[in-house]
């Protein structure tokens, strides 16, 4: 097995980096220029997945990069899929008042579902025919005559062996092809959900949905729909297959044995359905708790500077871990009940077989080897539909609960939106004139006209009629026409100033009154500037595709940004990081204002853009930008929380109080009122500037090593190797009991005298022994599952606690400033959810399948030593295939995981901190939706390609297992009189057929498990993060001296608040220039010190040093 090493993702430097950077002018195009090879593939190549060979061979030679993977076929792109879904969704809304997302999804993919169902049905028919051929082959082996005719009318054993081999080959190939279509369907459903989340969040439909819920919808709920698409068909196919199996058993054993076995099977399947429904309800609760945890984690990461300044890491970590504890409690119940349901369906064939045989011999019938082994073959054929039924039911209920969440998300009402249509020819009825404003209607329709309008932040639900939400704004009367003017809005904190602008933008729900907004375009600046992880220029130009250099230069000058750009090495091409972390507060405010000013808009809404500027800079920017550049040509509505010395320059002043307009008119008309107390001294704020580039996301190459698994088990708090060995031990015991049961069936049928303690031909005794073995097997299988689950849940608990601690104690400059929040949140949402849900499910299932394979190979080899010769070439082919494939698959999964971060990062960036409002104000929804679709398509092409790679490998592994079936069948015929008897031959054939189902599925699921472990690998990466200096320092006990009034005190504990900088220098990260250079100063106790300087002069860096946000480069404090 190859080694694993850390590398910087090649993809991160191109497509992923471009997707992470919302420079919409430069969307990635290189990956979309490679045509999908399936477009030109013939039907033979499509059926056998030969068109996929070149990519697998390329991945085996060199680590795959994004450029090696072709783009999505057009029908699989997010835009095309969304168009298909919207057609079904529109139909659903027209036919019912409560449209269902899940039913609309079924309508969207009804043709795809039909294709998958047809392929699965064809494969199932071929599977059910195999026991019939086995029966005829055993009949041939039990007769001495070379011309004896079997039930199929074929007397040639080699023809029967060839027929069995062909049926096996056809069944597995068709089934694998059906899985390709099912996986594609699941990936498409996942893409639709992610696109819907972006579509509605950008259009303002998510006003009641938190960012944590949005992330959960886009990552967790979409994945559950993918799993449902993969397993959905078994929900209907499994009962049909089981019914057909027992009908065929009835033809051989009679009606009553078949009815008895079917009754047990149906009862246990019904139990599985009921448990699946209960498990789905628990999953719904888990998603609620998980959404709250992700939401709080997102807020914690967004405000990490405040957390560190106040020293809140420990209590907030404890709060997150308490939420995680609730989630783990639900996960424990979820997994335990899920395993009980799975085990019930796993042992259903065993118990059904026991009852069939007991009833059969109780009727006085004689059990012969052909009858025993064909019954065993039929029941083994029922294992796949039973286990698949368990998976399908649970995934179906999970998907239904996720769909209900999506229904609630889609049903959330849109808010009032700004009209982009041509203004109507007739204006609405004029509002009553505000104080001192003429009621004479303007010559053209007003841009904004509110008449006794009251607004709420949330639309009241039907359940909240008796307790409606409070009004954010009350009885607003205002008219803003297209005449160039400057309106300044003032008022107390929380009086409704920002809410007034939000109402004008359409982000509030109109509760009563009238509101008419007709604006073609708006230049908007939020109170807390929303900046993207892009360059300064890209943030200012935003989505404007027209190069307007003269206006750009005027805006930069008017906003006083030229001097700042001159101090930056990259000028306006400097990347400012997530949320503009490399800019000072004043610089961020002016970049936000510059973006609004650069927009050639009909109306400018500016929400306190001057609060972060000192009085001198604020005055200059106000006059040069707001007055001279904007209000001379367009109406401007400006909110002011400070700098009241600018009010005399306003054409109109609005005074807000408690959500209502209490003063409206020129300043002179308000000067003699009580509003004079609002005037106050200017405030100032600034911060240090630095330049920084967001680092590429880490990605590993090569296999997931055994060390990854041991590290995961080590997270349980126990010895990792010891846990692994104990798990293997309990599985060995359980599997040995299951093999003993199958051997005993042949022993019973042959009426062997070797069991001397049991009376010969005593069917009642044999039946009792078989039932006892069945009960023992059930107990062992249940015990092994609960044992493994205990350790897996411990691993999940400790792994989350460790990475949360490490993230919270990572340095701000070298980690948070260069790592987008979406990338970190990806670990705490999608990756953690994968480890929580997929590792327990897949781990238990894979271990069971691995021991089935070992048992099958041992039993087949025990029947004849010649079969060992067959294992040599087949084993070589298997190992070669696995080596070639695993390299490709693991790299594709890592590309998938890495490409998922830009999707979540873009979602958190656009949905939080006023991002959606800014995007809608600039009418940039389409541009950002295109950006989102580019990110989704980039992720989906790796996700879908990875899934197809698993089916490519599974199909070829199935062919290897078909080789085992053919080898056993032909050897049984060739060594008819020397193979060890019909019992050995029957057992070998039964296990060989079982191998065709189990081998490929095990390898596929193991590879999927290896890919799932890349999530554990990505989580474990955060265990190696750079850590801050120690928060506390222990002093020798000799320094502790008694102090009057206290038991103990540190001798050098400061008794006065004096601070001394001694030749202190600081840089934010290695490789950057010093932000503070050789600072030496002393502040005596009781002194009040003011720090002044131009924007970017180092004031905030001084504070960062005092709070020890950055370690010293030299000197000390």
From TrEMBL:
It is a multi-pass membrane protein. SUPFAM superfamilies: ABC transporter transmembrane region, P-loop containing nucleoside triphosphate hydrolases. Residues 417-443 are annotated as: Disordered. It holds the Pfam family ABC_tran. PROSITE patterns: ABC_TM1F, ABC_TRANSPORTER_1, ABC_TRANSPORTER_2. It comes from the Eukaryota. One of its GO terms (molecular function) is ABC-type transporter activity. The chain crosses the membrane at residues 113-138, 158-182, 225-249, 255-274, 340-361, 721-744, 764-782, 846-872, 957-975, 981-999. Residues 448-683 form the ABC transporter domain. Residues 115-396, 721-1011 form the ABC transmembrane type-1 domain. Keywords: ATP-binding, Membrane, Nucleotide-binding, Repeat, Transmembrane, Transmembrane helix, Transport. GO terms for cellular component: vacuolar membrane. It is found in: Vacuole membrane. This is ABC transmembrane type-1 domain-containing protein. It comes from Aphanomyces astaci (Crayfish plague agent).
């Amino acid at each position: 097995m190859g080694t694993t090493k850390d590398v910087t993702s090649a993809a991160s430097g191109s497509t992923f980096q471009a997707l992470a950077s919302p420079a919409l002018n430069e969307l990635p195009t290189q990956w979309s220029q490679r045509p999908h090879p399936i477009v030109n593939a013939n039907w033979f190549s499509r059926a056998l997945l030969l068109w996929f060979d070149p990519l697998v061979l390329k991945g085996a030679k060199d680590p795959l990069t994004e450029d090696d993977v072709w783009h999505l076929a057009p029908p699989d792109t997010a835009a095309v899929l969304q168009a298909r879904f919207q057609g079904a969704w529109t139909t659903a809304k027209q036919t019912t008042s409560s449209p269902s997302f899940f039913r609309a999804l079924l309508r969207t993919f009804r043709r795809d579902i039909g294709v998958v169902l047809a392929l699965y049905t064809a494969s199932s028919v071929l599977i059910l025919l195999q026991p019939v051929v086995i029966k005829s082959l055993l009949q041939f082996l039990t007769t001495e005559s070379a011309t004896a005719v079997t039930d199929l009318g074929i007397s040639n054993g080699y023809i029967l062996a060839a027929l069995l081999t062909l049926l096996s080959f056809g069944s597995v190939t068709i089934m694998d092809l059906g899985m390709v279509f099912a996986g594609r369907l699941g990936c498409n459903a996942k893409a639709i959900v992610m696109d819907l989340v972006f579509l509605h969040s950008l259009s303002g439909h998510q006003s009641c949905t938190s960012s944590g819920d949005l992330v959960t919808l886009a990552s967790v709920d979409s994945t559950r729909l993918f799993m449902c698409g993969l397993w959905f068909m078994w929900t209907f196919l499994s009962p049909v297959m089981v019914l057909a199996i027992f009908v065929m058993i009835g033809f051989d054993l009679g009606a009553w044995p078949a009815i008895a076995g079917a009754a047990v099977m149906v009862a246990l399947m019904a139990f599985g359905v009921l448990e699946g429904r209960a498990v789905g309800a628990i999953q719904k609760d888990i998603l609620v708790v998980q959404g709250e945890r992700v939401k709080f984690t997102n807020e914690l990461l967004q405000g990490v500077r405040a957390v560190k300044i106040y020293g809140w890491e420990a209590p907030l970590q404890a709060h997150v871990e308490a939420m995680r504890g609730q989630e783990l409690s639900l996960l424990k119940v979820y997994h335990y009940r899920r395993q009980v349901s799975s085990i019930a369906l796993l042992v259903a064939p065993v118990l059904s077989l026991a009852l069939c045989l007991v009833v059969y011999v109780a009727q006085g019938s004689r059990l012969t080897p052909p009858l025993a082994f064909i019954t065993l073959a039929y029941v083994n054929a029922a294992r796949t539909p039973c286990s698949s039924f368990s998976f399908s039911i649970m995934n179906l209920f999970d998907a239904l609960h996720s769909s209900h969440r999506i229904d609630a998300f889609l049903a959330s009402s849109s808010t009032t939106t700004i009209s982009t249509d041509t203004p109507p020819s007739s204006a609405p009825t004029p509002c009553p004139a505000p104080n001192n404003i003429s009621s004479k209607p303007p010559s053209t329709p007003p841009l904004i006209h509110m008449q006794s309008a009251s607004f709420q932040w949330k639309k009241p639900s039907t359940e909240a009629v008796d307790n409606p939400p409070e009004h954010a704004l009350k009885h607003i009367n205002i008219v803003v026409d297209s005449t160039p003017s400057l309106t300044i809005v003032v008022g107390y904190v929380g009086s409704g100033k920002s809410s007034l602008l939000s109402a004008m933008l359409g982000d509030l729900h109109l509760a009563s009154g009238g509101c008419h907004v007709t604006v073609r375009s708006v230049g908007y600046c939020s109170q807390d500037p929303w900046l993207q992880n892009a360059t300064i220029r890209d943030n200012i130009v935003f989505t404007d595709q027209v190069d307007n250099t003269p206006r750009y230069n005027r805006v930069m000058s008017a906003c006083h940004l030229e001097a700042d750009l001159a101090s930056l090495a990259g000028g306006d091409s400097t990347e400012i990081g997530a949320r503009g972390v490399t800019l000072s507060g004043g610089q961020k405010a002016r970049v936000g204002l510059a973006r609004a000013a650069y927009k050639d808009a009909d109306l400018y809404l500016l929400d306190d853009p001057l609060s972060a500027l000192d009085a001198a800079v604020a005055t200059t920017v106000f006059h040069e930008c707001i007055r001279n550049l904007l209000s001379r040509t367009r109406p401007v509505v400006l909110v002011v929380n400070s700098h009241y010395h600018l009010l005399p320059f306003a054409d109109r002043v609005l005074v807000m109080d408690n959500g209502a307009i209490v003063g409206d008119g020129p300043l002179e008309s308000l000067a003699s009122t009580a509003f004079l107390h609002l005037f106050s001294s200017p405030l100032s704020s600034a911060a240090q500037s630095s330049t920084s580039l967001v680092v590429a996301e880490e990605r590993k190459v090569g296999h997931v090593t055994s060390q990854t698994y041991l590290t995961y088990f080590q997270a349980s708090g126990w010895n990792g190797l010891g846990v692994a060995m104990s798990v293997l031990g309990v599985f060995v015991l359980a599997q040995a009991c299951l093999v003993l049961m199958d051997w005993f069936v042949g022993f019973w049928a042959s009426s062997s005298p070797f069991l001397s303690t049991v009376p010969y031909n005593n069917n009642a005794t044999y039946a009792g022994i078989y039932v006892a073995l069945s009960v023992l097997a059930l107990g062992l299988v249940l015990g092994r599952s609960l044992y493994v689950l205990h350790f897996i849940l411990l691993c999940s608990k400790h792994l989350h606690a460790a990475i949360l601690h490490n993230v919270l104690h990572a340095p701000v400059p070298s980690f948070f400033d260069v790592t987008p929040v979406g990338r970190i949140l990806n670990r705490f949402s999608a990756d953690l959810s994968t480890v929580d849900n997929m590792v327990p499910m897949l781990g238990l299932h894979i271990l069971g399948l691995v021991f089935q394979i070992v048992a099958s190979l041992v039993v087949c080899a025990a029947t004849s030593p010649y079969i060992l010769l067959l294992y040599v070439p087949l084993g070589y082919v298997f190992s070669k295939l696995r080596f070639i494939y695993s390299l490709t698959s693991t790299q594709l999964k890592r590309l998938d995981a890495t490409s998922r971060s830009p999707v979540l990062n873009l979602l958190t960036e656009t949905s939080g901190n006023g991002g959606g409002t800014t995007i809608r104000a600039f009418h940039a929804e389409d541009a950002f939706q295109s950006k989102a679709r580019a990110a989704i398509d980039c992720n989906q092409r790796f996700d879908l390609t990875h899934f197809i790679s698993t089916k490519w490998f599974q199909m070829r592994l199935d062919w290897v297992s078909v080789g085992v079936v053919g080898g056993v069948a032909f050897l049984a015929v060739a060594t008819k009189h020397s193979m060890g008897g019909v019992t050995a031959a029957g057992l070998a054939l039964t296990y060989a057929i079982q191998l065709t189902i189990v081998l490929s599925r095990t390898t596929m699921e193991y590879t999927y498990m290896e890919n799932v472990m890349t999530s554990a690998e990505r989580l474990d990466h955060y265990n190696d993060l750079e850590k801050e200096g120690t928060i506390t320092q222990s002093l020798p006990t000799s320094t502790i001296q008694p102090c009057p009034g206290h038991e103990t005190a540190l001798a050098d504990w400061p008794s006065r608040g004096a601070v001394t900088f001694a030749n202190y220098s600081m840089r934010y990260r290695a490789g950057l220039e010093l932000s503070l250079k050789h600072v030496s100063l002393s502040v005596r106790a009781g002194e009040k010190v003011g720090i002044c300087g131009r924007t970017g002069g180092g004031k905030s860096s001084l504070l960062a040093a005092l709070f020890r946000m950055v370690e010293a480069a030299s000197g000390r404090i």
